[in-house]
Amino acid sequence: MRTAAQNAELALLLEVAGTPKPGNVDREREYEDLRFEHFLAGAVGAQEGLRMAGRVDGPPVGEAFEQAIAGMRDQRGGNTQFGALLLLAPLVRAAADGNLTRSGASDVAESTTVTDAAGFYRAFEHVAVSVEDPPADMDDLDVRRGSDAVPALHARDLSLYDVMDRSADRDGVAREWTGGFERSFGAAARMEALAGPMTERVARVFLELLADEPDTFVAINHDEATAERVSERARAALEGDEDPDALAEELVDRGINPGTTADITAAGLFVALEGGLAI
Amino acid sequence: MRTAAQNAELALLLEVAGTPKPGNVDREREYEDLRFEHFLAGAVGAQEGLRMAGRVDGPPVGEAFEQAIAGMRDQRGGNTQFGALLLLAPLVRAAADGNLTRSGASDVAESTTVTDAAGFYRAFEHVAVSVEDPPADMDDLDVRRGSDAVPALHARDLSLYDVMDRSADRDGVAREWTGGFERSFGAAARMEALAGPMTERVARVFLELLADEPDTFVAINHDEATAERVSERARAALEGDEDPDALAEELVDRGINPGTTADITAAGLFVALEGGLAI
C-alpha cells in the first residue's frame, strides 16, 4: 500500500499526465522550456519533503515544504509544482495524523507557526515564482526576499497561516489554506464520481475547476479579464461549444497557464487516492 | 541531488514517457487495460524496493527486487516494470557501492546467492509475467511456482546469477545480468550522446536497441520470426523508410509489445542519470 507521501507524488504525476488541460503541460503538450519531463523530475525530487510531511512527528510542514521545493528544483524547467506542494504539505500531514478531512487539514493549517512561515519564505530561494508586488506596508514581507524576510516574520509573529490569510483574496492556493481546502476536497469528490481512465478524469475535473473560478495564476501573470475570459472558454468547452484540444493548443501558444487550477487538481487527486481511489 | 533510488524511479518514468516507442505504452499511446497511469503508479510503488537496493548495507538485491515488485503491483494494469526493475536492482546497488560500471554491476550480479534467487521467485507471486515453459529437467524451478520452488533452489544451490545464466540464451534481461549489462551501458552512452528533450532521446535509443536485436519478450509472446520482423521494421524507421509513429500505432493495434527493449532503455536511462545527465 502506498504511503501518503507516495500518493502525493503519484498525484503530481497523474495531474501532469491529464490531457487536455488547456494552457498547462500535459501528456500531449509542453512548452519548449517547461516540458513534461521536468514535471516528472520535479515530482520525484519532491519525495523527501513529502516524506517529511508524512511523518506525524516530522518537522513543521513549512520546513517539509521547503525541502520538497529544494528537491523539486533539481531539473531545468524551473517552477513545476510549487503551488501543488504548498497544498500537499498540510494535506499529507493531515493524512499522517489519520484525519484527512477538511477540518483535519484546517487544523494543520491553523496550527502553523512562525517556523513554518520561515520555511515557506526560504523555499523562494530555490525557485523563481511569479508573484505580485506586496502592498506598501508589507514590503519587508515580500516573499522574494526569501530568508531575509524571516526577522520581519518574527517581529510581526506571523504564522504560515497568517501569511496565507494575507494573500487569500488574490491567490487561489492561499484561499485553500484559509478556506478549509474546499475546492481540493470538491475536486476529490468529482474525481471519485467520474468513471474511466484517471488521465481523462483529471482533464475533466481541471476543466470544471477552471470553468468554476478564474485562475489566480493567470490573473497574476496576465490580468483579471484574461483569467475571466479563460473561465468562460472552459465553460464553453464543458458545454460542447468549444473543442478542449483546440483550446489547449491555443492557450499554450499564448502562454496562458492556469497553474493554480492545476495545483488544486493535484491536491484533489491526493485526497481521492488517500480515500481509496484505485489506479 | 537525487539518490540512486530516485534516479531509478525517474528512469522508469522517463522511459514510459518517451514517444513514439513502437508497440509500447508511451505518452501518446496505451492499451485499454495497460495504461500510462499504471506505469506512473508502478514506478512510485517500486520506490521502497529501490530504496532497499540503494543501501550499501541493504538486504540482498533479490529481496529488494521482490519488494519493488510487490509495490509496483499496487495498480490495476498488472505487470508494468518487472524486467526493468530486475535490471535496476543490481545497477542501483552498484551505484550505492560507488561503482556503477560494467564490472561493478557484474560484481553485484555475481555475488548473489540462493537468498537472492528466492526473492526473485517470490516476486512472481505478486504479478503475472509472460514466461516460457522451462526445460523438462527444470520443472521444479519453473518461476511460476513462486516460493514453492525455493526448496529446489536450495537443493541445487542456485544463486540469482545462476538462474539468470540458465535463461540468458532466450531472455534479454537475463543476458544483461550475465553479460555485464552491455546493452544497458551502451544505451546510457547513446542517451548522453544525443541532444534534445529526454523523451525524444528515449524514443531514439529505444528504436536503436530494437533495430539492433530482436526483442525477447516479443519472441516469447509471439515467435522469433515476429521479433525479427519487428527489428527489421525498426531499422527501416531509423533509415527513414518507415514512419515511426505509424509503426507505433500498428504494433499497439497488433499487441506486439517489445518489453525487453523498454527494460533495457530504462536501465540505460538510470546509468545516464547517475552519470550526471541533466533533465
TrEMBL record, chains A, B:
Question: The organism sits in which domain of life?
Answer: Archaea
- Entry-linked Gene3D superfamilies: Triphosphoribosyl-dephospho-CoA protein (1.10.4200.10)
Gene expressing this chain: citG
Q: What is this protein called?
A: Triphosphoribosyl-dephospho-CoA synthetase
Q: Which GO terms describe its molecular function?
A: ATP binding; triphosphoribosyl-dephospho-CoA synthase activity
UniProt xrefs under InterPro entries: CitG
Q: Which Pfam families match?
A: CitG
User: What organism is listed for this UniProt entry?
Assistant: Halapricum desulfuricans
The UniProt entry, under PANTHER family, shows: CITG FAMILY PROTEIN (PTHR42280:SF1)
